[in-house]
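Session log. Operator J.P. requested a structure for one protein chain; no other inputs attached. Running the standard single-chain path with token output.
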Amino acid sequence: MTKHLTDVRFADLNLEAPILQGLEEAGFEFCTPIQAESLPHALEGRDVAGQAQTGTGKTIAFLLAAFNYMLTKEPAQGRKPTQPRAVMLAPTRELAIQIHKDAEQLATHLDFRIGLVYGGTGYEKQKAFLEKGVDVLIGTPGRLIDYLKQGVYDFRAVDVSVMDEADRMFDLGFIDDIRYVLRRMPPAKERLSLLYSATLSHRVGELAYDFMDDPVEVKVTPTDTMTVAQINETIYYPANDEKLPLLVGLLRKSKATRSMVFINTKREAERIYCMLAGNGFKAEMLSGDVPQNKREKLLGMFTSGEIEVLIATDVAARGLHIPDVSHVYNYDLPQDQEDYVHRIGRTGRAGASGEAISFACERYAFSLDDIEKYIQHKIPVASITDDLLPELERPIPSPFARKRDARGRPARGGNPRGGNNRRTDRKPRPRREPKKEIEVPDMPLSEMKPRLEGDDKTAIKHHHPEKNKLPHRLRGVEIPAIG
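Structure written below.
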């Protein structure tokens, strides 16, 4: 039995036979600590607020509890197919997709229809699936509420509510959306409520108090550290111009097949991508504006080993379950200490070992003190040697750069990847006729008689040299007839 598992078997818990059969076929026999401590309470029908480090099996814990509750409790009388019995909320698309994947695997022998909703793609396809009815609904708050307001489904028959990564919901500004959803469910005493997160802050506790029924609080994070024991943490103190050579040197030295590099800004991530690609690395970039279909393709290529280095902003710091990520690099220290825990949680998953390497540069070193206070230990410092600072090749031309004008501003109508968006099928505009010369009478404007009509009259009024002497409210107004 590996170190990250307990001696508690799933077969020893009060789980229904179809669930145990799915667990056995999926290769799960022993519980992780968060599963062993939270499942007994949830299987008794108690609400649970659980805290555990990333990659320790929280998703399996709440899926098993939800499925077992649905099997042992009769659905609400008169429930319609478009009234889901379980609603599971996740802050990011990647996390929602991963929960759905795990749910499908565990529900092989269960007669549950499982739906997935998230923004960025497949609007009509997702809607058509939901209109046929679902038992379990998994999704991100925005798209889920969109369909709710359209009446595609309602939450009046919900038996189980789940919030995963609840603190991230706060960080991304979803808290009002979460309250909106929970208020449309039956009262807390009439449903099972589960909340799991890598960090369980005071504000999350307030949410649990408002929308859960006296939840049991389960914490399996060690009291002396907020990070996983099998992750080896290291920090370097490079100058700003040493960061790129140091990153390249460490990547070459590690010879890792799957590494993640976290950057604070998209612009810097683009620069890092060009430099790594120019120095022989199979790298790609993942940021918030990457289309969903491309995002899924990149993650698939990274998982399969086609991509060696994935450069990411914090949009990818949570919810990604990518096996065998051996190295995580904090090229920029995060400005939020909780993000540090979630970034390095991409490695050291499911009992595996991992390396978390951070750069405390001149710009972001101020974050280190808050991070170390939060994780409750000092990060070991490593020295920068000459062999870690190689000479770099020139970066590749940026595929992200927009054309710019003489002042360095983005050119109007340009393609964000530098292409030309001009239409070639557009007919040329007809040439304008030249303006005819206007003869302005040599007399004061106030004495001018309306001897001309229509356009000539208006034109003379606007071309007269004394037009600006009129009061502002009369400029551009027809001159009344005199005499």
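Operator note: The mean pLDDT is 82.
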